[in-house]
Design brief:
The radius of gyration is 51 Å and the shape is elongated. By secondary structure, it is α+β, with helices and mostly antiparallel strands. 13% of the residues are buried. The N and C termini lie far apart (135 Å). The strands form 2 sheets. Strands 3, 4, 5, 6, 8, 9 and 11 form a 7-stranded antiparallel sheet that branches. Strands 7-2-1-10 form a 4-stranded antiparallel sheet. It contains 2 helices and 11 strands; from the N terminus they run H-E-E-E-E-E-E-E-H-E-E-E-E. Strand 4 and strand 5 form a beta hairpin.
Length: 258
């Protein structure tokens, strides 16, 4: 053998291997012994990237002006609600005490004074209507004001119109009114032909519409104006001039308009 040649030890593969090194029972970051030196295991410091944190924005405290406005709004809403409750309570008490009812109307008779064609082919009509108005209320009086309207229609065409006079109707009172209605309609020739055809059947539909402004009197208290709206559908046998028309059927509906 030469001097440069080295001799390596022979490793016995069947020889027992030494046991692996045991791990320390003391966990990382804790002291080795309660009685020994309090040396703490040092942990490696990991370099973390630098992060820039955004500034935290805190809401500004409300000003005194805004708080005053909120208080005023709350007080206003509370007062409005209180007024509504008071008005509703008063209305309920008045309703229970007086028990108001809508006046009732009926058409007693209808007379045709005039129904003819003019030279300009318009239709002239003059009706006399007798209406009975009934106030069924025991503690309520009714003031009939100016501005009332009574109109008679035939198939969406107004034939004539008039008004109810101004008067006062007491408690549980029945008043008979004679109202004169006059009017002039265009296309009288066509309208007259249609009326004559309906006369042959003996059933002519007429629509009497009523609109009356009234004031209600509760004891000594006079309330604001309201409007009584009425619609009476009449079936008559004919529309002959200078004759009393027989009413075969009558249906009336009424309501109030504030």
């Amino acid at each position: 053998m030469t001097e440069n040649q080295r001799i390596h030890p022979v490793v016995d593969m069947e020889a027992p291997r030494p046991p692996p090194p045991t791990r320390p029972l003391v966990p990382r970051g804790s002291f080795k012994s309660e009685k020994g030196d309090p040396t703490r295991l040092q942990q490696p410091i990991i370099n973390q990237p630098f992060r820039r944190t955004a500034p935290v924005m805190y809401p500004r405290p409300p000003t005194k002006k805004r708080s005053c406005c909120c208080k005023c709004i709350c007080w206003t809403i509370s007062l409005i609600i209180l007024l509504i409750i008071i008005i509703a309570a008063i209305a309920g008490i008045l309703y229970l005490v007086f028990k108001p009812k809508i006046p009732q109307y009926s058409v007693d008779n209808l007379r045709i004074s005039d129904l003819r064609l003019n030279f300009d082919m318009s239709l002239y009509a003059r009706f006399n209507v007798r209406i009975t108005a009934v106030n069924p209320n025991k503690k309520i009086g009714i003031y009939y004001q100016k501005g009332s309207h009574l109109t008679v229609w035939y198939k969406n065409t107004e034939l004539c119109k008039g008004s109810i006079p101004k008067f006062y109707q007491g408690h549980q009172n029945k008043t008979v009114l004679d109202v004169a209605l006059t009017g002039q309609s265009q296309y009288g020739n066509t309208l007259m032909s249609a009326i004559q055809e309906a006369t042959q059947t003996g059933r002519i539909p007429l629509d009497l519409k009523i609109e009356v402004p009234v004031s209600v009197k509760l004891g000594k208290l006079k309330l604001r104006k309201v409007r009584i709206m009425g619609d009476c559908l009449l079936i008559v046998d004919s529309l002959s001039a200078n004759s009393l028309v027989r009413i075969k059927a009558s249906t009336c509906k009424y309501g109030l308009k504030l």
